[in-house]
Amino acid sequence: MNTTAHLWDYLPILIMAIVALGFVITVMALTHAVGPRRKNAVKDDPFECGIPVQGNARTPFSIKYFLVAILFVLFDVEVIFMYPWAVNFRELGVFGLWEMFAFMGLMIIGLVYIIRRGALKWE
Amino acid sequence: MKELLISSLLGISVLLFDLLRLRRAILPLVAAGLIALVAVVVVDWGTASNPFGNNMMLMDGYALASIGILALLTLFWFAITSDSYPAQSRRTDLYALVLFSMTGAVVLVSYTNLVMMFLGIEILSIPLYVLVSSDRQNPLSNEAGFKYFFLGAVASAILLFGIALVYGATGTFDFTELGAAVSASTSNLMLKAGIAMMLAGFAFKVSAAPFHFWTPDVYQGSPTTVTAYMSSVVKAGAFLALFRLCTGPFSAVMDGFTDMLAFLAALTLVVSNLMAAVQTNVKRMLAFSSISHAGFLLAGVMTGGETGPGILLYYSLTYGIASITSFAVLHVVSSYQNGAMEYDAFRGLVRRNPFLAGAMTIALLSMAGIPPMAGFMAKYFIISGIISTDMVWLAVLMVLTSVVGMYYYLRVIIAMFTPVENAGRIMLRGLQHYTYILLSLLMIILFFASGFFEVLNF
Amino acid sequence: MELIPGVTTEHYLVLSLILFCLGIFGILYRRNAILMFMCVELMLNASNLALVAFSRMWGDTGGQVFVFFIMVVAAAEVAVGLAILMLLYRNMGTTQTDVLNKMKW
User: Fold this and answer.
1) Does the distance separating the beta carbons of B18 and A113 come in below 8 Å?
2) Fewest Cβ atoms closer than 10 Å to its Cβ: which of A121, B84, C9, C66?
3) φ and ψ at B422, to 5 degrees?
4) Which of C:60-99 have CB within 8 Å of A?
């Protein structure tokens, strides 16, 4: 198999990208040009169930969400080590399986510790 | 292999013990584990060692001796700070982080592959970022944590790019192949640039001037017990790793970098000693003094040679003991004075607790390099090594800056012996008490046992 | 081995150098902790690009495996770094690094 690709092979993707971009730009320009424009203070307000808007939209959100997100990143990235294992699954055989068990076991100890320390408690 | 397993499993077992509600048993567990680590080193000493993990690591004599010293220093740290952390849940995290960080140091002294070196540095550093900012309510600790994290990450990135360039020039990470490839292409520009970037990254990590700016802030801001750990185990680990790199695969091209390292060492010595002399805060003064010792250790890395490893290990051990002692005393003294860390906080310490004052005096004299303390022999070895490589100007600079050092160390000692009215006594618990005595004795015993390290051959 | 004709290892190396320098420049120029943080990530990823390019040039998979490790290390750094940043934000009320001036000299 010849792994060397040619720039030529990517031409359909380029055409596709140009068409997609062109469509979006055309439609946006068209609606902007054709549609009527009537501006007043009430109309420019962000719509929130019809009642007056309260406060800033960019308020900081709860810190709990942040903690969960950080922990997610950590456990998410560990999957990266499963990728080479998945590719060489047959060659590594039972040895690879045990290694992966050991790795996962260590990760689970970490997870259990996090849960016991209450890092995932929402309230 | 065994050493790495023990040190990494020790940290995980600490977490497990916490889960199993065996918090009281954690400190004995840590002590037993670290003693076992030292014992394994002693048993393995002199036996032929094979590389393991696809030639990633090798427990040779140098690695074993380094691991022994790192384990001992960590053990001393645990003993001397045992009183500072009450048996609560938070202690578990700190202890586990310290042990994980020590595992990084173990990797750093036994790697034979650049991948492992980078991982070792990160395993050493990432727990430290947490430890430094572990005093959560204290803005100083926050600031120290951010500065350390940020500059540490930048240093890692620079080091990593250096590794990438070296890989580009040689096509391998493995030490044996790397050594052959390096000596075959000593004038390759990409290789030289890569090594220079790696050295710059390391200079950040070991806090050599002009990459030292984070050190005083981080040392001052972090909890004093953490500072004690950083200035001993972490510093020793980083320098031992740098030595392994410079004398290993890059030895063929190190001649071209000697001038650069000599310049760094000289600048480090001058800047740190002058800055330390003008400090009013003892913790900050000790931080600058730690930088000045980095200058000595850098010179030790540069000399290399037959006795090089032994000298570097001896210096790391003696300085580590002295700095653990001095920071621990500072911690106790300041906690009795609402956190005051000025020179005045030490006034009348000899009345308040003679053991603390004695240990502090011995530690400071050792750092200043006054016989019969071990620090004298350590400095003597390094200076004579420098003279034998025909860099007399650097040796003269070392002696001169040591004289400046004498000034700020003596200021603390004088303050301790200044009488003060109605001084309350400072009480120490049994284990801490004995640790201070042990460390003070060690600093004197090591002076006479220095010959052993000089003939240490790998 | 060229995946795309005309694009050699040098091109990748130059791109990674540009990214690395952008990262350094951003760190020196920016005063917002989160932006500085992103610049560090940029530097790490510049190294990743160089490693993968060299790995292909030498026909050695070592460089690519190293990149896996770097990505995990970067994730760990992100977790710790953002936690420290959060601490800072809670105590100081800002992520501008100008407030970090309690210790000088």
Assistant:
1) yes
2) A121
3) 35, 55
4) 65, 68, 71-72, 75-76, 78-79, 82-83, 86, 90
CATH code for A7-116? 1.20.58.1610
- Give the C-alpha separation, B41 to B65, whole Å: 7
| Full-model pTM | 0.88
Per residue of chain B (458 residues), give pLDDT as tens: 888 999 999 999 999 998 888 888 888 999 999 999 999 999 988 887 788 888 888 888 889 999 999 999 999 999 998 877 765 557 888 999 999 999 999 999 999 999 999 999 999 999 999 999 988 888 889 899 999 999 999 999 999 999 999 999 998 999 989 989 888 887 888 998 999 999 999 999 999 888 888 999 999 999 999 999 999 999 999 999 999 998 888 888 888 888 888 999 999 999 999 999 999 999 999 999 999 999 999 998 888 777 788 889 999 999 999 999 999 999 999 888 887 888 888 888 888 888 899 999 999 999 999 888 999 999 999 998 898 888 899 999 999 999 999 999 999 999 999 888 777 788 887 788 889 999 999 999 999 888 887 767 66
Q: Does B5 touch chain A (CB under 8 A)?
A: no
At residue A123, the pLDDT reads: 67
Angle between helices B392-417 and B258-277 (to 10 degrees): 20
List Cα–Cα distances, B394 to B227, B399, B401, in angstroms: 29, 9, 10
C2/A81 Cβ within 8 A: no
Residues 6+ apart with CB under 8 A from A81: A103, C68, C72
Distance from CA of C33 to the nearest CA of A (A): 17
Boundaries of every domain in chain A: 7-116
In this structure, is the dihedral angle defined by the CA atoms of residues B295, B301, B304 and B308, taken in order, positive or negative? positive
Question: Scanning the structure block, which residue is given the tokens 């940290």?
Answer: B11
Q: Cβ contact (<8 Å) for B19 and A106?
A: no
Q: Do A109 and B18 touch (CB under 8 A)?
A: no
Residue of A nearest to C66 (CA): A81
Of C27, C81, C103, the CB nearest to B220: C103
Chain C residue at shortest CA distance from B212 = C105
Q: What domain count does chain C have?
A: 1
In chain C, which residue's Cα lies nearest the Cα of B142?
C88
Kindly determine whether residue C79 and residue A70, on different chains, have CB atoms separated by under 8 Å: yes
Q: What chains are in contact with C, requiring at least 3 Cβ pairs below 8 Å?
A: A, B
- Identify the CATH number of the domain in which residue C19 sits: 1.10.287.3510
To the nearest whole Å, the CA of C48 is away from the closest chain A CA by 15
* All chains having 3 or more CB pairs closer than 8 angstroms to chain B: A, C
Q: Give the span between the Cα atoms of B77 and B435, in whole angstroms.
A: 9
B12 touches chain A (CB under 8 A): yes
Two structure tokens written together for B173? 């990470």
Residue C103 lies in a domain: no
Query: Minimal Cα–Cα distance from A113 to chain B, Å?
Result: 7
Q: What is d(CA B149, CA B132) in angstroms, rounded to the nearest whole number?
A: 9
The ipTM, to two decimals, is 0.94
Residue B229's pLDDT is what?
Answer: 95
Report CA-CA distances (Å) from B326 to B128, B218, B333, B399: 20, 17, 10, 22
Interface of B with C (CB under 8 A): 115, 118-119, 122, 126, 129-130, 133, 136-137, 139-140, 142-147, 149-150, 153-154, 156-158, 160-161, 163-165, 167-168, 171-173, 216-217, 220-221, 275, 278
